[in-house]
Specification:
The protein contains six helices and 25 strands. The protein is mainly beta and 487 residues long. Among the domains are: 253 residues, Cupredoxins -  blue copper proteins (Immunoglobulin-like), CATH 2.60.40.420; 60 residues, no CATH class. Strands 11, 12, 14, 16, 17, 18 and 20 form a seven-stranded mixed β-sheet that branches. Strands 2, 3, 4, 6 and 8 form a five-stranded mixed β-sheet that branches. It has a five-stranded mixed β-sheet with strand order 13-25-21-15-19, with no helix packed on it. The radius of gyration is 26 Å and the shape is globular. The chain starts with 7 loop residues before the first helix and ends in a 33-residue tail after the last helix. Bound molecules: copper (II) ion. Copper (II) ion binds next to loops.
């Protein structure tokens, strides 16, 4: 395998040989890398303004902002400036990106169906650019495709886009010149058009999230825009957990989440815990109610938006994340083989005389990579997670938390971790419950016994097998415990 095709996936799939060696002394040093709890949210309910040419309930862009505008002779005037931006993905990872108005991604544009908008675009990059209004119905010459619909905007130039908004929905904007470079460096944003005559009241919470993916070599300060397949930083509004801001809702709120995906290569499977939702719209418009069905995961093709809605009826901390599991991981600063199931006992003892302070890791999975505070190289993120209420959270990347509460802090601050009512928290099973319910460990320990014998250790204590029950509660033939030498 050449180094050029040695990517995250085949690297993880390698059958394990070498132990991962980490200097113990460095474990302490990275404490500062993992102390940042999920950022607070301003998820307060914004004052409702009746819909119309000038009024709507604004969306909340977690970790983002809305682009200011002014009214000039009845025209909504916006100004975007394309420019280099130093951007933090999460505490510990900062990169030199390209964005708009000092932000990555650009600010969310908000307007109302029927508005006449004029959007100035100033180019402060060293390269030509354009802006395409993704999904917006407009004259061809305003479509922003370099070479096809307009001349590119040269460095220092300001172009004017002007059109009337004929539709409403969740749309996007992005560079459409040297797309791979400019979009992989961050040049994109959301374009929300509120309905002029909505059929339903506005939701209580209206969130907007843009998904994207990046290749940032460990320790590098610049995302690699030439990467074609192997991305290692996955973001919601250009932030990776624990840098993502929580979504907040009060119990009973109708919550809308608008999701856009402008990842270079990946679709994403955005999964919300605790609820089912309905996909009510795409960037092609609203889906008639008869065509909506309940989901817990929404598929997000690249170059599309999906809008989901649900009633936040159940208080708690509910995670929302991409279910493509490499997308809830971030960079891997250390290369190692697959050690799952390998008996690494005694390896430290053998290695330490040769390499003082070294230890093995990874024999029970990757979940401990972040928690151990394994020193990450400068300007990189631990492979997984951030601190949680009970334990270290073993997901990072494209991951955030929906915090639903009976009451929210009056000052709009993030409500902190959920405190479950007594009796509603999963905990170690008490002995008396195990006894009462006849829970035993026969099937598992048959294998454990075989493994222990193979290692030359004493066999573990074996419990009697539990009788199987038919659905009517009557006893079936007991499980036969097969002793095997196989692992
Ligand atoms: Cu994904």
């Amino acid at each position: 395998m050449s180094s050029s095709n040695f990517n995250r996936r085949n690297f993880l799939a390698l059958a394990g040989g070498a132990a991962l060696l980490v200097p113990v002394a460095r474990l302490v040093a990275s404490e500062d890398k993992r102390t940042s709890a999920p950022a607070t949210s301003d998820g307060t309910t914004k004052p409702f303004v009746p819909p119309g040419p000038l009024g709507y309930r604004p969306v909340i862009t977690p970790n983002g902002v809305t682009l200011p505008w002014k009214l000039v002779d009845g025209v909504k005037v916006f100004h975007l400036t394309a420019e280099p931006v130093t951007h933090e993905f999460a505490p510990g990872l900062v990169a030199e990106c390209w964005g708009y108005n000092g932000r990555v991604h650009g600010p969310t544009i908000e307007a109302v169906e029927g508005d006449h908008v004029r959007i100035y675009v100033t180019n402060r990059l060293a390269a030509p650019t354009t802006v395409h209004w993704h999904g917006v119905l407009l004259p061809s010459g305003m479509d922003g495709v370099g070479g096809v619909s307009q001349k590119a905007i040269q460095p220092g130039e300001t172009f004017k886009y002007e059109f009337t908004l004929k539709q409403h929905g969740t749309l996007m904007y992005h560079s459409h010149h040297d797309e791979m470079t400019q979009m992989q460096l961050g040049m994109m944003g959301l374009f929300i058009i509120h309905p002029k005559n909505p059929k339903t009241p506005p939701p209580d919470r209206d969130y907007a999230i843009m998904l994207s993916e990046w290749k940032i070599e460990v320790g590098a300060r610049r995302p690699d825009p030439n990467e074609m397949t192997d991305f290692n930083v996955f973001t919601m509004n250009a932030r990776s957990f624990p840098g993502t801001q929580a979504l907040v809702a009060k119990k009973g709120d109708r919550v809308r989440i608008r999701i856009g995906n402008l990842s270079t290569m990946s679709h994403h499977a955005i999964h919300l815990h605790g609820y089912y939702f309905k996909v009510v719209a795409t960037d092609g418009g609203e889906i008639p109610e008869a065509g909506q069905w309940p989901e817990t995961t929404v598929h997000m093709p690249t170059g599309s938006t999906r809008t989901v809605e649900f009633i936040a009826g159940e208080p708690g901390d509910w995670v929302m994340h991409c279910h493509m599991l490499h997308h809830v991981m971030t960079q891997m600063g250390h290369k190692f083989g697959n050690l799952i199931g390998i008996d690494t006992q005694g390896l430290n003892k053998k290695f330490r005389p040769l390499v003082p302070g070294f230890m093995t890791m990874g024999d029970t999975g990757m979940g401990d990579m972040g928690e151990m505070g394994m020193a990450t190289p400068p300007n990189s993120l631990p492979m997984v997670g951030g601190p949680g209420q009970y334990d270290y959270i073993t997901m990072g990347g494209m991951f955030t938390i929906l915090k639903v509460r009976d009451e929210l802090p009056a000052d709009g601050s993030e409500p902190g971790w959920y405190q479950p009512p007594p009796g509603t928290l999963a905990e170690p099973a008490p002995e008396e419950d195990l006894k009462r319910d006849g829970i035993s460990f026969g099937a598992a320990t048959a294998q454990a016994e075989a493994r222990a014998r193979a290692r030359g250790g004493p066999p573990p204590e074996i419990c009697a097998p539990t009788p199987l029950l038919a659905t009517n509660g009557s006893k079936l033939t007991p499980t036969v415990r097969v002793k095997t030498a196989m692992n």
